[in-house]
Each structure stands twice: as C-alpha cells, then as structure tokens.
Specification:
291 residues; alpha+beta; 5-stranded antiparallel β-sheet; 5-stranded mixed β-sheet; 12 helices; 44% helix; 20% strand; elongated
C-alpha cells in the first residue's frame, strides 16, 4: 500500500469533498478529521491540522488528478466572502446575548443565482444593519430562498437550559434542528454555521440526515451570503417578538444585558412579579440574579 501526504489550506477542503463525491466514495468523519473519503482502491483523510493523507494501492493516479497546483487553483471560491460553493445552507442565531426575549435560530438555503440576487439587494451580516433595514431584507430573503426558523420563547428556553445546563449545547440543538428541517425541504450537501463552540458540539447534536452532509463551522461565517441571510431572518424574528412583548406588557424591553436592562428588569419584577419575569427573560443570565 502506498501513501502520500501534503499540507493544504482547510478552506479548500469543502471543494475536495464535492469533487471526490464523483469518485464513488464513502464519506466518514473519524476523530481529529474534517472528513475521510474512501473507495475500494484508496482513501483521502483530511485532518484538522491541515494535513491530507492519501493511502491505497493505486494512489499515483488520484494524487496527480486531485493534488496538483492547477486543480487547487480551480477549487478556490469564485465569490469573495462565500465559504463554500452554492447551493448550501447557512445557519445563524439571534437573541443569545439578550436578557429579554427569545432565542431565534434561522437557516437559509441558497443556490448561486439566489445568492447573487440577494447580494445585489444589500444582504450582509445583520449586526451591520438597523432594525428597519432588517425587516425589509428579511421579506426579500423569504421570497428568494428556502428557509427555516426555530423560535424558542423564554419559558421554553429556560426549560431547555435547565435540561442542557449549557448554552452551547442548547445552541447546538437549535442549529441542528434547523439543519434537519432544511434537509427535509432540500437536497443540501453542505451547511455552514458561525463557530460558537467545539465542532463536535453541533456534529453530535445532528440526527440521521444531518450526519450525511458536510457541516462547516467557522468564525465570522456571516461573510457567507447564506449565513448572512440566516442572520437577518433570525434578527427579524427576534425584533418582531420583542415588539410583541412591548405591546403585551405595555413597557419597553431593551436589547442586550447592560445597565438599562437591569433597570427595566427591576421595574418589571415590581409590576408583574418574579414568576412572570421567567416568561420574558433568560434566567441563567447574571442580570436575573441581580434583580
């Protein structure tokens, strides 16, 4: 059995998975790897260290075909900012840093044509947009994509947090749920999420369908159009639900977890009581114990 190893830019690995799928491969994710592609003659193993190892009885052909410089250049993304070739799923959340209001996780599935159209409309990371613009863009996204939104109200959120005992585990459950829902609506092979924890947290939370696709977790993933679109959908839903709370309780619920939130939390507690506060806030925040 022969072997060949090389160091590659991890940003290229998603493209290798796409083209190796044409070689009648079986894909697995062993420990410490991004993925492994194996057929009857050889196997590619893409390690998280950046090392790529090829092993088999007929590797000269496959190494020459897929690991020369020309091929590597062809694999680089054509659109600046996008993390993987389209079509793919992007997932993001809103509300995890807000004491008041729900946690929203959204996913958006885009092909290349849809992504280019949305870019022309000004789609970008929701943190760079005001609420008015977010509400407008969210409607455009919904009309030009396949999407899914999971909204976790405060009562349910607090129940889930008590179960998971960890915010990252709760987020992983939400992200994996959105991915699974979109896999029931699409033939997606790739999902991209902003990295908020160890990669295994989301991978372990995925169910049967989710374990068949490639999940890329990367910091600042909102540079990708699908993730940016998901971030807008999530923030739009959060803004709408905070607005409903404002109307229902006839008071303003500030975003975030700063001093103004603490002041308003004390007012709410005095007016409606500590039990009702659990229905509008995230009780594991330090703000809650300070009221």
């Amino acid at each position: 059995m022969g072997s060949y190893s090389i160091k590659l830019d991890p940003n290229l690995w998603v493209h290798y998975k796409e083209v190796l799928s044409n070689e009648d491969c079986e894909f697995k994710i062993p420990d410490y790897t991004f993925f492994q592609a194996k057929n009857k003659n050889w196997q590619f193993t893409f390690y998280k260290t950046g090392k790529v190892l090829v092993q088999g009885k007929d590797i000269d052909y496959i190494v020459k075909k897929y690991l020369d410089n020309n091929f590597e250049c062809e694999l680089k993304p054509q659109t600046e900012g996008d993390i993987a070739p389209f079509p793919h799923i992007g997932v993001d959340e809103s509300g995890k840093g807000d004491f008041f209001g729900p946690l929203i996780i959204a996913g958006c599935y885009l092909d290349e044509k849809q992504a280019n159209f949305l870019k022309e409309k000004g789609i970008k990371d929701s943190k760079k947009l005001d609420d008015k613009k977010i509400l407008t863009l969210a409607e455009i996204i919904k009309e030009n994509s396949i999407f899914d939104i999971v909204a976790i109200g405060n009562k349910k959120y607090n129940e889930l947090y008590s179960k998971f005992k960890n915010l990252n585990s709760l987020l992983a459950w939400g992200h994996s749920t959105v991915i699974e829902n979109l896999l029931n609506k699409t033939n997606a092979k790739i999902a991209i999420s902003d990295k908020f924890a160890d990669e295994r947290v989301i991978l372990n939370a995925l169910k049967q369908k989710g374990k068949t696709i490639q999940v890329i977790q990367q910091t600042k993933a909102e540079a990708d159009c699908a993730v940016a679109s998901a971030s807008i959908l999530a923030r739009c839903e959060f803004v709408k639900r905070i607005s409903k709370l404002n109307e229902e309780y006839e008071m303003t619920f500030p975003k975030g977890a700063g001093e103004n939130v603490l002041i308003q939390g004390k007012k709410f507690k005095e007016k409606f009581g500590i039990e009702e506060l659990k229905n509008v806030s995230k009780t594991h925040f330090k703000t809650y114990s300070s009221l």
